[in-house]
Amino acid sequence: MSRSRIVIVGAGFAGYQAARTLSRQFRGAAEIVLVNPNDYFLYMPLLPEVSSGILEPRRVSVSLAGTLPRVRLVLGEVDGVDFDRRHIHYVNPEGQGGELRYDRLLLTVGSVNKLLPIPGVAEHAHGFRGMPEALYLRDHVTRQVALAASTDDPAEAEARCTFVVVGAGYTGTEVAAHGKLFTDSLARQHNRPPLGVPGLRDDRRPRWMLLDIAPRVLPELDERLSRTAHRVLRKRGVDVRTEMSVKEATKDGVLLDDGEFIPTHSLIWCVGVRPDPLVEDIGLETARGRLVVDEYLRVPGQPDVMACGDAAAVPDLTRPGEFTPMTAQHAVRQGKVAARNLAASYGYGAPRAYKHRDLGFMVDLGGVQGAANPLHVPLSGPFANLVTRGYHLAAMPGNRIRVLADWALDGLLPRQAVQLGLVRSWSVPLESSSPETARVPEPEPQAEPDSKSEPKSEPDSKSKSEPESAAASEPASEPER
Fold first, then answer.
1. What average pLDDT does this structure show over 294-315?
2. Which fold does the domain 5-37+76-113+274-344 belong to in CATH?
3. How confident is the model over 370-391, as pLDDT tens digits?
4. pLDDT class for 49, splitting at 50, 70, 90?
5. Of 110, 285, 357, 368, which one has the greatest count of Cβ atoms within 10 A?
6. DSSP, residue by residue, 145-182
């Protein structure tokens, strides 16, 4: 008799924790299958440090095969679920389709960039939800500073050295905070030519703008932490504008709500997230775009299906009538509860409802600055930064020594002003259903061979990345970690 098969879709915070918990509990008694487009778990809270040149990409990419030894990894993006046949359909990285049977199914597909109906944003902005976007931003920022240093046109230099971040939540605030330090370091390296030769003069220093329609930065946090973050950003030179957003984006810059036009080649979109488009495609009941589940993370009407993380509208038992926020803190704990409840369905223990009160939040503001309230004790400055980094090291399931080594090297050596050019602008569109993978060009159609010629071989890879339409009509400042 074959082992029962538990299929987990998605290896974000919820999916990874569920897979690890199940593998430890069953120890081979059931087959645990994890379906994910990449072979790594991305520790997203440290992604701003990748885009700013502090950490190398593999430091925040934890191997799934290396850390989940009793879990079978299937590389692919799930694009359909047949609940009657208990099958999922997926497409692997080379464009080949496949199916998997399941006895239990856990959906943890996560979220993608949230779009707003603002002219030009989808064409000219880039998000910050995956490794390809972080690598693109690091190269793009490095390139813009280099181009600004090599031009004689002051207007062009100013536009290339202006970076606009929309969304002052966790991600946007950290991207702006780290980005300003990064570009200042790059500018110092380019500010060396003798008089009369192009270079970054003091009046061409990089400028960062942080915009949000909320009345303060980090609107999800305690006001004391918001004030700390605002003060650090202002002192660093970031132009923080609250109750302000973008009215239109063009290739030459952005038009703000108040009518001011900002010349720039860099628009970074961090306004929030929406559930993965698969949630809508599978036809189950949703609430606010997320899969409806009960407090045990079960999907109503589907006794063998559960969901958690950003994709699920999990009832918040600490705040009746509301759903848990889309944060990593909840996703990690929901993944563990989902795993225990799946095990309970096989007779291993008893199911339990998900209930969690937040333990505080932490924001790394770059350098030695931070803002945190662990266990709701407000902290700021170097001590908050130390606590924040300590928390990240404890939360990471691997690569801790490598992360520590990169932090130490960053404190001793200047940032590397190198652009690798591996991720192009067109390969990381804002309007993407798969921000965790870079888009590749569609293969050119092959001409039909005539009867006298040899048949041509088919291309061995195919891109699968269809753009999704904007699903949101209002801005959101939901925390993303």
1. 97
2. FAD/NAD(P)-binding domain (3.50.50)
3. 999 888 889 999 999 999 999 9
4. very high
5. 110
6. HHHHHH-S-HHHHHHHTEEEEE--SHHHHHHHHHHHHH
